[in-house]
Each structure stands twice: as C-alpha cells, then as structure tokens.
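Re-run with default settings, no changes from the original entry. Doing this only to confirm the output is reproducible before filing.
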Amino acid sequence: MKHLKLILVFLLFTCFSFASISSSEKEALLALYNQTNGVEWTTSWDLNQPIETWHGVTIIDSKVVSLNLTYNNLQGNIPSEIGNLSHLKVLNLSFNKLKGTLPQSISSLKKLYSLQLFLNQFEGNIPNWIGDLPNLEFLVLHSNLFTGQIPTEISNLINLKRLELGSNFLEGNIPYWISNLKDLKVLSLIDNQLDGEIPESIVELTNLEELVLSSNNLTGSLPFELTHLSKLSLLMVSDNQLNNNYTTVVNNRPNKMTLFIDDERFADKD
C-alpha cells in the first residue's frame, strides 16, 4: 500500500510538472522549437522533461514570463504562435540565425518590457505594431537587415529606456518625435543610412546617458544644448557629413571644450 501511494504521488507530481502552463503556451514553445531547428540548438530542450527544466524558459505562477535563448543556434523564423505567450515579459532571441520578418502576433504580448532580437538576419521594415507594446522598456534590434524608416509608432513607447537600432539599413531622418521618449537613457542608431540634421528636440531627452549616431549621412551641426544634458556620458557622431569634426565623448559630460572644440564659432573667440 505504501509503495502504491509513492507511485501515485510521483505520477501526480509528473502530471503537475507537464501541466504547469496552459496548452496554448506549450504549443507556442513547441512551435518555436520546431520552426527554429530545435534539435540543432546549442542547448536543446528535452521534450520528455518538464517544461520548467527547458533551457531559457522561466515560469512563475504557471505562466511563461521569460524566454531567453541567446547564442543558441536558432535557425529559421519566429512562429506566429509566439503571441500565445501572453504573460511574457522578456523575449531575448539575440545572437542567433533567425530570419524573415517579425510576426505581428508579437504585438499581443502586452506585458513585454524587454524585446531583444539583435544579431540575427531579420529583414523588412521595423513593423508599425511595435508601438502597440505599452510596457516596453528595452527595444534592441541592432545588427539585422531592417530597412525603411524608423516607424512613428515608436513614439508611443513612452516607457522606453533603451532604443538600439544600429547596424541595419534604415534611412530617412532621425524623427523629431524622439523627444516623446522622456525616459530614454540609450539611443543608438549607429551604422545606418540616416540623413538630414540631428533634430533639436533630442536635447529634451534629459535622462539620456548614451547617444550614438556614428556612421550615417547626417548633416548640419550638433545642437549646442546637448551640453546641458547632465547625464550624457557617451556621445559618438563620427563618420557623418556634419559641419564640424566633433570630439567623441566617453565618461565625461560633453561641454564647450570637449564637444565643440572644433567648432568655428568658438575657435573665433580664442
């Protein structure tokens, strides 16, 4: 009898482990596994083991809240079923070999605060629906094959702290609405095909700590008001077509002497 009780306890524990998340969430994880060649992942999933043991999957209160599969040799496309992970807060699939366009179903992940997909092969425009993720704080899409302009809908993401879109093929201007992102600490648009002048509205980002705009086709001059941004400690604008050769600032608040030393307006006053 005692032996039978132990068997029942074991079976109940096993069933609980496998049923700890909803069937739709499990379906989403399996779709990702199948569409990205899961058997060839660097650290694969043992589908016969409880989901709680699967690499990169974090479950809290029977809900998948984080999926972190960085540098894991994922190959293929993100499946539309990813939108079934409705409680997801972190989605990090960086450093892989993913391709294609981003599925619109990601816009269903309303609790998402970190979306990091850098160093893959995603293509097409950065989708407009990215602005439908109200809690997003980290949007990191650099080092992909994205084209087109920076979508206006990003201006809706007023909680953003990091916006990193560098090393793509983005074109057009740095949008004036960038000033809507009052909490922004890092803005990196390096190595794109952006043109036009740096908008003066950028100086309204009073929490900005890093501004990286190098290797574009930007023209004009830096807004002098950047020297008023007390938290700015990294500024890179080299390899553009700006009127002056501005000094790169690292770990030092930009000021008249460090930032505008090559500006003729100040050289004439010496």
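Confidence is low (pLDDT under 50) at residues 4-19, 261-270. The chain has four helices and 18 strands.
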